[in-house]
Amino acid sequence: MTQLLNADQTAARLPWRALVDEIARLLKDGSVEVPPRLVQALPGGGSLFVMPALDSRVAITKLITFTPANAGTGRPAIQGDVVVFDVATGQRRLVLDGPTVTARRTAAVSAFAAQRLAPDTQGPLLVVGAGVQGKAHLEAFAEVLNTREVVIASRGAASAQALALHAQSLGVQARVVQDANAAIADCSLTVTCTPASGVVLDALPRKDAFISAVGAFTPQMVELSPGLCQHFAAQGTVFVDTVDALHEAGDLLQAGLDVSRFATLADVVRQDIKKPAGPVLFKSCGWAGWDLAAARVATTQQFRTDRN
């Protein structure tokens, strides 16, 4: 019988460390296939995403809507499901909450990239944007990298204070700042988790900086200034999550950079690329392979539950 999981149940099936470890395994798995995702524009400015992926054991499709106009309404910007099938039998095994999968796998990818590439993983961590992704990244970095100090910058004072209180409940010291550009000099780790409707960072980073930019996933979206992206390309190192960044990484594309010359996470794992000297920019655009990694973890957790 198919299990239909709500947001809390989906999160419980996706422990942070297990998800990060599965991402590493998936990048070495030659059976993984990820067709291009279909993005259908909707009236009113939203988009419908259809994202399939499969390996030798599991096939998934993520079906979600992205509705930027929902910002500030109490309705989530991302809604939908991830449907998980057994390849051998064709049976539908799980239906996972799509926004929860998106939040957790995105944050886990950032944490994995920081593990492998950040010059200094000690922090503090600067979180720009205090929404769903900001919360997920805080939790992932606290669990996976043992981050113990966070600085929060957000346009919404109430959401920033709520995230600071959540950080404190996890045993993480937290403070709220007004200016992310002023705070970046004090933080070795930064994640930008905004709606990507405009530049939120343009200050030059410190030499041991790691930035994971996750908000912009279309050519029109942007969080980092062109000058900041160009600085990383000239004075540091830029990595992207997948080759799809060639046509999705708005920050890099608007900076006029040749995205094809930047290594992907698959390159990092398969070529055993070591941490580079100087500042590192990791540009994340999203990929159904990350959702497949989440589905693999969730089905493993289901198997363990069924056995007990």
UniProtKB/TrEMBL annotation:
Concerning InterPro entries, the annotation shows: NAD(P)-bd_dom_sf (IPR036291), ODC_Mu_crystall (IPR003462), ODC_N (IPR023401)
Q: Would you say which domain of life the source belongs to?
A: Bacteria
Q: What is the official name of this protein in its record? A: Delta(1)-pyrroline-2-carboxylate reductase family protein
